[in-house]
């Protein structure tokens, strides 16, 4: 088994010219080159805004090249919780944004001819307990009533039409969701941003940002390759946010997520496991998510360990995930696991995406494992706002709580407690 990201072997990451010097000044500096930063840079470049993308590692290095490639509708929290918290009107706009985000990805893929195996295969949520399945009927009814969006209930007797497993109690399908190859997608976005005119800098960690002065509202952005000034800043650093932007770093809880990829399966086995090639996840807090890769490997992921990835957590997680995969699909008992890797999710304490401005800097973070579509959408929308469009982003300005000490970035000693808590919730609910 290789401890590496399977997706990276399917593409070549674009590189920036190492001899290119940073410009002295730009209109907008984008920190971070995941789907958020790159989709913003693409729009800014197209509109003639002088933009620099500053990436600490290689383009797309963060969660955006390592994820499950599930382009999902909806949000992490149940709709009733959302309505209680934010009111019906705002939640309708949030849900509409989640649906629009799938179209946004599709449109970019088409306009930029990104070969990333984008397909509207739909997603399937599977119920781990009878009570979870009972909740699906209410959920589907509410989503149709509030958002005019149809979800389809799949009773246990029909579940074999959707998935080659007998352990679940039913399912819920959303046909609007899609799947893609995330590494190819983020590489395509980087190429598109550069083609649009953004100046691209990889291996350029930002070490600090500050206002130039009281009367000069521009920012000075310091990097390991020198500094530049920028009229506006977009922080798009997700779970990998550093103390270069400490106020934002304090808001983010970094949580590990891991994926294994099986050897290539035969057509018939692949079809038996996932006859409709859905993006699938289960109903637990400590959930499993899985799908077939375009070359018919089973990609099986989950928060096997709560800590962000390192050599040990990847190895331990691979074994936990292999056991999980076999529990779901006994047919894969003798199948080899060829790849295992991990990445880090950016959770806000309230499990919501957040956009806004902090000390004048734009940010978009907090996707909680649900960021491929919404990150692309929010990056695109924030670029519009920077260009003077009205700000109708429904996540903008909602309260953004700071997690209690011990859960924020860099202080991960409390994560096993959080993990145990979520396992407990799965046991009792
Ligand atoms: C294993 C895994 C599976 C997932 N599966 C799915 C899925 O199937 N569907 C889904 O919707 N979401 C999924 N997610 C979540 C999704 O990948 C993320 O929400 C999304 O990619 C975040 O994008 P981003 O652009 O905000 O940040 P990232 O892609 O994380 O990019 C942030 C970048 O900022 C850079 N950076 C950080 N600090 C600095 C600095 N100081 N200077 C310069 N650069 C800096 C980092 O190097 C990094 O490349 C998954 C995540 C993981 C880890």
Structure, explained:
This protein has ten helices and 18 strands. The chain is an alpha/beta fold and 429 residues long. The strands form three sheets. Strands 1, 2, 8, 9, 10, 11, 17 and 18 form an eight-stranded mixed β-sheet that branches. An eight-stranded mixed β-sheet has the order 5-6-4-13-14-15-12-16, sandwiched between helices. Strands 3-7 form a two-stranded antiparallel ribbon. Helix 1 runs parallel beside helix 9 (371-386) and helix 3 (88-111) packs across helix 9. The longest helix has 24 residues, at 88-111. It is globular. The two termini are 35 Å apart. Residues 31-37, 54-57, 61-64, 66-70, 72, 205-206, 236-242, 244, 257, 259, 301, 343-345, 367, 369-373, 375 line the site of flavin-adenine dinucleotide.
Break the fold down into its secondary structure elements and pairings:
Elements: E1 25-31, H1 35-46, E2 51-54, E3 70-71, H2 79-86, H3 88-111, E4 123-126, H4 130-147, E5 152-155, E6 170-174, E7 178-179, H5 182-196, E8 199-201, E9 206-211, E10 219-223, E11 226-235, H6 246-249, E12 252-264, H7 267-273, E13 279-282, E14 288-292, E15 297-302, H8 311-328, E16 337-348, E17 354-358, E18 361-365, H9 371-386, H10 415-428
Parallel strand pairs: 1-2, 1-11, 2-8, 4-13, 11-18
Antiparallel strand pairs: 3-7, 4-6, 5-6, 9-10, 10-11, 12-15, 12-16, 13-14, 14-15, 17-18
Helix pairs in contact: 1-5, 1-9, 2-3, 3-9
The structure holds flavin-adenine dinucleotide.
Please provide the ordered H/E string of secondary-structure elements.
Answer: EHEEHHEHEEEHEEEEHEHEEEHEEEHH
From the alpha carbons, calculate the radius of gyration and give it in angstroms: 21 Å
Uncertain spans: none
Largest sheet: 8 strands, mixed
Q: Provide the structure class.
A: alpha/beta
Give the total of beta strands.
18
H/I helix tally: 10
Q: In oligomeric terms, what are we looking at?
A: single chain
Q: N-to-C terminal Cα separation, in Å?
A: 35 Å
Measured as a percent range, the helix fraction is: 25-40%
Mean of residue pLDDT values: 94
Range of strand content: 15-25%
- What small molecules are bound in this structure? flavin-adenine dinucleotide
How would you describe the shape? Answer: globular
């Amino acid at each position: 088994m290789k401890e590496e990201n399977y997706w990276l072997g399917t593409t070549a990451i674009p590189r920036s010219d190492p001899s290119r010097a940073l410009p002295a000044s730009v209109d907008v500096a984008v920190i971070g080159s995941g789907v958020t930063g790159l989709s913003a840079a693409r729009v800014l470049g197209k509109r003639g805004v002088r933009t620099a993308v500053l990436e600490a590692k290689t383009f797309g290095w963060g969660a955006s090249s390592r994820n499950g490639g599930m382009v999902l509708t909806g949000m992490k929290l149940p709709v009733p919780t959302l309505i209680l918290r934010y009111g019906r009107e705002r939640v309708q706009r949030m849900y509409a944004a989640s649906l629009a985000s799938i179209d946004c990805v599709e449109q970019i893929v088409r306009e930029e001819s990104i070969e990333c195996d984008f397909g509207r295969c739909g997603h399937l949520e599977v119920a781990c307990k009878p009570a979870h399945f009972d909740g699906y009927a209410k959920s589907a009814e509410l989503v149709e009533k509030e958002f005019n969006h149809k979800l389809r209930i799949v009773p246990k007797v029909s579940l074999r039409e959707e998935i080659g497993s007998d352990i679940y109690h039913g399912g819920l399908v959303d046909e609007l969701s899609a799947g893609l190859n995330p590494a190819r997608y983020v590489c395509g976005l980087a190429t598109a941003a550069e083609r649009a005119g953004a100046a691209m800098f990889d291996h350029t960690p930002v070490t600090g940002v500050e206002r130039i002065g009281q009367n000069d509202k521009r920012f000075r952005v310091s990097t390991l390759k020198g500094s530049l000034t920028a009229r506006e800043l977009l922080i798009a650093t997700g779970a990998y946010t550093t103390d270069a932007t400490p106020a934002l770093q304090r808001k983010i809880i970094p949580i590990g997520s891991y994926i294994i990829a099986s050897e290539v399966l035969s057509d018939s086995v692949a079809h038996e496991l996932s006859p409709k090639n859905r993006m699938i996840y289960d109903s637990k807090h400590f959930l499993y998510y899985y799908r077939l890769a375009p070359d018919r490997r089973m990609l099986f992921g989950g928060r096997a360990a709560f800590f962000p990835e390192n050599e040990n957590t990847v190895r331990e997680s691979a074994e936990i995930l292999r056991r999980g995969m076999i529990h779901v699909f006994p047919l894969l008992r003798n199948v080899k696991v060829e790849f295992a890797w991990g990445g880090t999710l950016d959770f806000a304490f309230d499990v919501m995406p957040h956009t806004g401005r902090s000390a004048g800097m734009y940010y978009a973070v907090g996707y909680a494992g649900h960021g491929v579509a919404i990150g692309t959408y929010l990056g695109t929308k924030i670029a519009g706002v920077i260009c003077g469009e009205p700000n109708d982003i429904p996540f903008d300005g909602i309260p953004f709580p700071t997690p209690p000490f011990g859960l924020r970035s860099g202080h991960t000693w409390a994560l096993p407690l959080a993990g145990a808590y979520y396992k407990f919730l799965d046991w009792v609910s």
